[in-house]
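Memo subject: From amino acid sequence to discrete backbone structure tokens
Keywords: amino acid chain, backbone geometry, structure tokens, three-dimensional fold.
Body of memo: The sequence and its backbone structure tokens, given next.
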Amino acid sequence: MWCFGVSQTQAQGTVQFDAQSGSRTKACTPILLTNMTQGRASLLLVLIALCWGLSWPIGKLLLRDLPPLWIVFLRSAVGALALLVLCIARGRLVIPKRSDLPVVISVSVLHMVTSSALVSIGLKFVTAGRSAVLAYTTPIWVIPGAYLLLGEKVGWLSILSALLGVAGLVALFDPQRFSWSDPHALYGNGLVLLAALFWAMSILYNRAHKWVTPPFELTFWQSLLATILLFPVAIFFEGVPSLTLPARAIGLLLYGGVFGIALGYWALTTVNRAIPSTMTSLGLLLVPVFGIACSWLLLGEKPAFPLIAATALIITSVGLNTLAGGKPATSASESPRDSIDRKM
């Protein structure tokens, strides 16, 4: 559901901010578009949010043809192949250095494998729109983690952000109406929330990591490692799936890997060079909104009032968190403050 990692290069010789880690390193020579106007970049940003929002109902649709772990594996494989082609075409294929291995492993294991697998399984029991909103609670868990583990200062905006996020969760679960006796509801919602926690763990590690190789160059290797790890996991838990897939499923997998992962990264790096990073962060708040809208159109998941109220509260929470941190958020594989990865 999420996209995984991409760096923001603002200008040659300036500071490069990594969406995954929150770290700053010397910028690389720009290789993407440099003449894009802010208007066109903003339009492209909306298209990226639409693309990633659409990934949520697509993940739900794929469950009709494939078991959840095989969906994550095949989507990751398509994404890795597309990233390989893109990196070669852009001259950005590099061999990771030894100091890069911890962040390659952490993103692959915590986010691309564990978090993505939990979301895919959770989608069997939870609507796609609700899952998109639950996944957006990641910044709520990052705030206390950053304070306790990284010693980051927490201002009143961050505290207000966390409180609004918790209020959004309460509204989403609507304790008086939630089916607490339904094990499927508890299981599905719990898995997506657990996925958000693993996503937050990945973000916290990446913030502490000292970057050597620019993050975008590592994305292919992270996706490749995730693909390798997911294969035996899928075999062990779900066995060998049917070797004949309908054209619909193949098309959806191609969309998730090519548009949701590879081209999504490339487009976002282009956007980040044309508009301020805070604008990018706030623009990506459209992802769960589009996720709900697309789920309504494609799956008939008409949003009820608790979902709408929770979405408003959580989006406001994430927006305040972004403004409080003053740090770019440029990936769907991380939280909106640090990035929106991969969300697929």
Summary: Residues 7-325 form one domain. The chain has a mean pLDDT of 81. The radius of gyration is 18 Å.
